[in-house]
Amino acid sequence: MNDRHRIEKRHNSCTMPLVFLSPVAHVSHESERPIKIVWHLQHPMPVEMFEESEKGLV
Q: Over the stretch 10-53, which tens digit does the pLDDT of each residue have?
């Protein structure tokens, strides 16, 4: 599988494209709505993108 990630969900009323991060492996999942899925990235997420996601900007 591939993990895709958005830098911003919307910008100027337009949906932003997804960004390919890395091939992934399914680790676990739980619940149904909303479903929580844990993935293992084959390559680490870029630091800048990780920091943005930690700030809630993603």
A: 667 777 677 788 899 999 999 988 889 999 999 988 888 888 77
Edge-to-edge strands, sheet with 2-5: 2-5, 19-30, 36-41
Does pTM top 0.85 for this prediction? no
Q: Which two tokens stand for residue 9?
A: 């969900």
Residues in the chain: 58
Q: How far apart are CA 11 and CA 8, in angstroms?
A: 7
CB of 53 within 8 A of CB of 34? no
Residue spans per domain, the chain = 2-54
